[in-house]
Design a protein that fits this description.
heterodimer, A: 734 residues, mainly alpha, 5 helical Cullin repeat like, 5 domains, three-stranded antiparallel sheet, 30 helices, 9 strands, B: 229 residues, Recoverin, domain 1, two-stranded antiparallel ribbon, Cullin_neddylation_domain (chain A)
Chain lengths: 734, 229
């Protein structure tokens, strides 16, 4: 703790008494003050920068900084007060110009003064925490000019008036405006904001509020949006020309709020021109404008989306429930596809392919397509029509395009298994009657279905194709094995051997085939069973077709293409001229419903009535009698006799299909439940239902009640039990 | 048969006196008692089949002084753990009557009153309730009971306790056509429903829970009726 004694060395300053004139400070200041006056009076050319700098330097050095600084303030204030008077005196429009000019001069003067007083700025100002000269000049300007009573409000009003005039179409001096706003920002962001921007935004808000009110009363939605867009662009342009860039988001948000957000609902719902009208009339440009404007405001896009969705759902619902439409399934599906195309295009070209809009589109379609329980059937019928006729002569790419569209509709379906059922039926008919336009297209769709739903979904469909291919080979083998004597005599047959289970038809009782056919049928049976052991053949006479050569009276020869049943009926007339309905029924043993249809198509269709019926009427009665129509005439040699049949499923058939579908679902649901419970062991009811739904939704949407029933059935069969304590839980019983 | 394992020995059995001094005397008393129980059995049993058959039960009923459809007979069957409706085997008889400490008709008569209390106790009731259902499954592999019998059984067992519920439930069951028979799961559901659900408001019924569907339908029917009013 002992500090050694220190010897203080001190270098004495050179003792040289400097004479300081007591009046020195006063005199030097006078010089500088004079110089400042001169600068403000534009007489700076006569001043010596070097001398003035030295004077100021000396003053600071001799501790007269205070005097210098306060003198500067006083002098500048004096000048600014004069300036303020001259600005105030400026009349009308000259006011801004005068202000601008004076501002320019003040800046120049400030520059020079700062240069002279540079030393003070560096030492005195920073040591004493004073405001540097330049900033001081600005703040004095702010205080004495901008915030002076007579100028402040006048300035603001002038600026706002200029902008108002520009908004109403007049041309204003944008350069001047830019200088003034630049001045305000130079004086500090708060000055720009408080003295200009804030009132500017308020005035703009009320301007646009008024304008929007006025326009919305008299304009259509489209026109209004055009105006809004133009205004928005104008404001943005204004910012780039003469406002601070930071103002852009603020002013655009004012326009957005006043022009769009406040009127959004009204615009969207505007009668005869709102969103719905635009959608209906495909007004892509207006829609695009609405999208780009609305996306700027909160909830804007969701407003559009909601209205679009509800319109789409409403329209879709009408479409799928309109009984008129249900008459023509092809037309029905075509309408759906057109609707889909239309909205795809709108979203693509006007809504920027917005994901959320596409999702809304999908969910809307899913919603209304499934409102109609027959949609799966209709889509299959549409495909059927395309494959039978529609795709003839269409290029491969176009075929693919059609199929892809069908697939999108298919994806919307909840009951994909119902579609599968119908598709199988329709495909079977196409294949068996050789009605399909293109095998490649058929296969292509099956590949698509396979990709979408997995192997299981299409395996039977593929099995059908395989059967036909095998049948061709079998027939080749069969006819090769026949002696030439057999080939020449009697009728020829083509047999398609179908695997039971792959094809959707129910086994039905065969009708009595004409005696002429029996030998060849027998030969085929013998051949087939000879080549394959352990198989059973049964004839599906309700499925085939036949070509008959017929000679009518007056030597009219025709080849008739008829169904197997019709062939059986016609062959009866080889040995009889007149046959009653009952006789025919007895001889052929064709089921009554089919028989009536066959007879109807043979006797009641104009131009194809190869039979004549007594009495002449549309329907076939039990006591009707039939004759060969000798007067039959047709300009074609080959005549195809169709079968009178509703192409759509008839009512009982429909219910039967429905029931089959329901039955098929039961084991699938049970399998899913067991699968889930096996892995989870214990699970609560809601989760079981959710999980089952999730697992099955690629095929159909199981009804929770049905799931519950299946669970109960599984409980009864002791695959599951209820938890003793927690009633929500099921337990898996191994 | 349902897999639910049967609970055994839920009845309270008085343990024999532990003291050595009394053991032999007690043993003698017990064998006497067993003898009398056997005698009682043979007085009702059919000599050819060696079990108490329907006729035997009927005469037992008249001796004890209850109708054969009386719930107390069902309770006795439960106590005996009788397997087959309308029949008591010697084994069942011995076990049951021993537990009831009855070796004469007079004692049995008294015991039946006690038995009713025992059955109504919460720990035994649900066992008894499920037993009643199984007891009615007379056919081999039979799993369910027709609606008519179900209603009678409900009325018999739950009727005295849950009169309003059972009234509505049987009305519903007889009126609907979706179900022709009732299985064990649904049967157990009815008891749980009566125990847990406010009635007639059914406001604490949550169809999202794992209730059997038939009860969902019942509640829906109830609500429709209430709204209809």
């Amino acid at each position: 703790m002992n500090t050694p004694k220190k010897r203080n060395f001190k270098i004495e300053a050179f003792k040289h008494r400097v004479e300081v004139d007591p009046k020195y400070a006063e005199k030097t200041w006078k010089v500088l003050e004079h110089a400042i006056h001169e600068i403000y009076n534009h007489n700076a050319s006569g001043l010596s920068f070097e001398e003035l700098y030295r004077n100021a330097y000396n003053m600071v050095l001799h501790k007269f900084g205070d005097k210098l600084y306060s003198g500067l303030i006083a002098t500048m204030t004096l000048h600014l007060k004069e300036i303020s008077k001259s600005i105030e005196a400026a009349q009308g429009g000259l006011f801004l110009e005068e202000l601008n000019r004076k501002w320019g001069e003040h800046n120049k003067a400030l520059q020079m003064i700062r240069d002279i007083l540079m030393y003070m700025d560096r030492t005195y100002v920073s040591n004493n925490n004073k405001t540097p000269v330049h900033e001081l000049g600005l703040s004095l300007w702010r205080e004495h000019i901008i915030h002076s009573e007579n100028i402040r409000s006048r300035l603001l009003n002038m600026l706002l008036e200029q902008i108002y005039r520009e908004r109403t179409g007049e041309v204003i001096d944008r350069g001047l405006m830019r200088n003034i706003t630049k001045m305000l920002s130079d004086l500090g962001p708060s000055v720009y904001q408080e003295d200009f921007e804030k009132p500017f935004l308020e005035v703009s808000a009320s301007f646009y509020s008024g304008e929007s009110q006025q326009f919305i009363e008299c304009c259509s939605c489209g026109e209004y949006l055009k105006k809004a867009e133009r205004w928005l662009n104008e404001e943005m342009e204004r910012v780039t020309h003469y406002l601070d860039p930071k103002s852009e988001p603020k002013i655009t948000s004012v326009v957005e709020r006043e022009m769009i957000a406040n009127h959004m609902q009204r615009l969207v719902h505007m009668e005869n021109s709102g969103l719905v009208d635009m959608l209906v009339n495909d007004r892509y440009e207006d829609l695009g404008r609405m999208y780009s404007l609305f996306r700027r405001v909160p909830d804007g896009l969701s407003t559009i989306r909601d209205v679009m969705t509800s319109h789409l759902r409403e329209k879709g619902k009408q479409l799928v429930t309109d009984p008129e439409r249900l008459r023509d399934p092809v037309d029905f599906v075509q309408h759906l596809l057109d609707e889909k195309d239309k909205y795809d295009k709108i979203i693509g070209s006007s809504f920027n392919n917005d994901k959320t809009f596409l999702n809304a589109l999908t969910s809307s379609f899913e919603y209304f397509i499934n409102l109609n329980g027959r949609a799966p059937e209709f889509i299959s019928l549409y495909v059927d029509d395309k494959f039978r006729r529609g795709l003839r002569g269409v290029s491969e790419e176009d075929v693919e395009a059609v199929l892809d569209k069908v697939m999108t509709l298919f994806r919307y379906l909840q009951e994909k298994d119902v579609f599968e059922k119908y598709y199988k039926q329709h495909l079977a008919k196409r294949l068996l009657y050789g009605k399909t336009v293109s095998d490649d297209a058929e296969r292509s769709l099956i590949v698509k279905l396979k990709t979408e739903c997995g192997y299981q979904f299409t395996s039977k469909l593929e099995g059908m194709f395989t059967d036909l291919k095998t049948s061709q080979d079998t027939m080749q083998g069969f006819s090769a094995g026949q002696g030439p004597e057999a080939a020449g005599e009697g009728p020829a047959i083509v047999v398609q051997v179908l695997t039971t289970g792959s094809w959707p038809m129910q086994p039905s009782a065969a009708c009595n085939l004409p005696a002429e056919l029996l030998p060849v049928c027998e030969r085929f049976r013998a051949y087939y069973l000879g080549t394959h052991t352990g198989r059973r053949l049964s004839w599906q006479t309700n499925m085939g077709t036949a070509d008959l050569r017929v000679a009518f009276a007056r030597n009219q020869r025709h080849e008739l293409n008829v169904s197997t049943h019709q062939m059986c009926i016609l062959m009866l007339f080889n040995s009889a001229d007149r046959l009653g309905y009952r006789e025919i029924e007895q001889a052929t043993e064709i089921p009554a419903a089919d028989l009536r249809r066959c007879l109807q198509s043979l006797a009641c269709v104009k131009g194809k009535n190869v039979l004549r019926k007594e009495p002449m009427s549309k329907d076939v009665g039990d006591d009707d009698a039939f004759f060969v129509n000798d007067a039959f005439a047709s300009k074609y040699y080959k005549v195809k006799i169709g079968t009178v049949a509703a192409q759509k499923d008839s009512e009982p058939e429909k219910q039967e299909t429905r029931q089959r579908v329901e039955e098929d679902r039961k084991p699938q649901i049970e399998a899913a439940i067991v699968r889930i419970m096996k892995s989870r062991r214990v699970l609560d009811h809601n989760n079981v239902v959710a999980e089952v739904t999730r697992q099955l939704q690629s095929r159909f949407l199981p009804n929770p009640v049905v799931i519950k029933k299946r669970i109960e059935s599984l409980i009864e069969r002791e695959f599951l039990e209820r938890d003793k304590a927690d009633r929500k839980l099921y337990r898996y019983l191994a | 048969m349902p897999r639910t394992s049967r609970r055994t020995g839920s009845a309270a059995v008085n343990s024999p006196a532990a003291s050595d001094i009394f053991r032999s005397a007690t043993n003698r008393a017990i064998s006497k008692e067993l003898e009398r129980i056997d005698v009682l059995f043979h007085s009702y049993s059919d000599s050819s089949s060696g079990v108490i058959g329907p006729e035997g039960i009927e005469s037992l009923c008249s001796d004890v002084g209850v109708e054969h459809t009386d719930i107390r007979m069902l309770m006795l069957a439960w106590k005996l753990r009788a397997e087959r409706q309308g029949y008591f085997t010697l084994e069942e008889w011995r076990g049951g009557l021993k537990a009831l400490r009855s070796d004469s008709i007079g004692k049995l008569k008294k015991a039946l009153t006690e038995l009713e209390k025992e059955v109504r106790s919460p720990e035994n009731f649900s066992d008894f309730y499920s037993y009643a259902f199984r007891y009615c499954l007379t056919e081999d592999k039979q799993r369910s009971i027709d609606i008519e019998s179900t209603c009678e059984l409900l009325d018999l067992i739950l009727g005295p306790i849950y009169r309003p519920q059972i009234g509505k439930l049987t009305e519903f069951l007889k009126g609907q056509s979706d179900y022709k028979v009732i299985n064990m799961d649904q049967w157990m559901g009815f008891l749980r429903f009566c125990k847990e659900i406010n009635f007639p408001s059914v406001d604490n019924y949550d169809p999202a829970l794992a209730w059997p569907l038939i009860l969902d339908n019942f509640v829906e029917w109830m609500q429709q009726q209430q709204h209809g009013r």
